[in-house]
Structure formats: structure tokens, C-alpha cells
Amino acid sequence: MRSDLAWSAGLVPAPLFATALAFVTLCMASDLRTRRIPNAITGPAILAGATLNVLYGGGAGLTASLAGLGLAVGVLLAPFAAGGIGGGDVKMMGAVGALLGPHRTMVSLATGLVLGGLVMAVHLARQGRLREKLLAMAVMIGGAATECSLQPLKISADTPGAVSLPYSVPLGLGTLTALVLGVA
């Protein structure tokens, strides 16, 4: 089952590609429908990513899988702690990391975060609230800098006037973009 030549050339083996595609699609659908991404989806995807990467890349595949998982969780831990994204989004991208390794995961994250920012900016502009939210963000950042604390950056989706976005959608689209473009 090993195909070291294809894997080292930067191609995603078909089973990994199909698993990542199905997983991200399932996460986005779940998040849109219920605003949750259950552990029953993310846990098996992490195990599948590690297993498939071992089959295709041996020890190096396992290392890449664990590095991708750690990278995704590490990058998203601060936004999660601040209340900007949910735990399901972190677990989803951790599983993407386990499936696709660190490089494709970083491309997926970067693309997804930019897409999420653009979608939110357009959404707020259409509601006439972009200026309000940019000013609020500036106040939060100023407060964090003045207090030397991350506490002013903490937000909650339950706060009156809060605007939330099922962030799995832009993160998932970022992942699909990295897959389709064949980013190595």
C-alpha cells in the first residue's frame, strides 16, 4: 500500500484526499446545521490521518501527521482561548493536520482565516456594523496592550450584539482549496 515516490513528490494519496474531503464536508454540514462539530467525527479522522500517513510514509508519515495536528491546535489555541472560535473548529483543523501534515495544514489555515475575515467583513458591512466592530476591536487590542493581559480580548458569542460565523466553513474551504490546488 506504500507509495513513497508519490508521497515524497508532494501528491496526496487518493485515500487521504478522499478522507480529508469527506471529513471537511461533514464538519461544515454539521456546523451549519447544529453549530457543533462532534468528537465522534473529529476523533476517528485524527486516527485515520495517523494510520493512513503511516501506511504511505512510514515513520516520516507519522511524524508529519503529528506535526500537522500539533501545528493546527497550536495556531488555533489562542483564538479559541479568546472565544473567537469554537473547540470544534480547533479539533476539525487538528484532524486536517493529522490527515494532511504541517505544510498543507498551514496553507489551509492561512486560506481559511483570510476567507473568514473577508466573509465577516462583507457580512458586517452589509449590516452597517463594520465600523462599529472595527472600533470595538481596536479598543480591545488597546486594552490588552495597556493592561499587558489577554483578558480584554476575550469575547463570547452570547454577548449582546455579538456576530458569530460557523468558522468551519471558511476553514473547510481553505482546506479544500489546498487539496484541489495540490499544494505540496
| Global morphology | elongated
Give the low-confidence spans: 1-8
Estimate the strand proportion. under 5%
- How many domains make up the coordinates? 1
Task: Give the distance, in angstroms, between the N- and C-terminal Cα atoms.
Answer: 21 Å
How confident overall, as mean pLDDT?
Answer: 88
Radius of gyration using CA atoms only = 18 Å
**Number of distinct beta strands:** 0
Structure annotation, total helices: 6
Portion in helices: over 70%
Q: Biggest sheet, in brief?
A: none
Describe the model:
With 184 residues, this protein is mainly α. The chain is 77% helix and 0% strand. The protein is built from six helices and no strands. The radius of gyration is 18 Å and the shape is elongated. It starts with a helix and ends with a helix.
Short summary:
It is built from 6 helices and no strands. The protein is an all-alpha fold.
Characteristic terms for this protein:
single chain; 184 residues; mainly alpha; 6 helices; elongated
Task: Draw up the topology in text.
Layout: H1 4-8, H2 14-34, H3 39-81, H4 87-127, H5 130-147, H6 168-180
Helix pairs in contact: 2-3, 2-4, 2-6, 3-4, 4-6
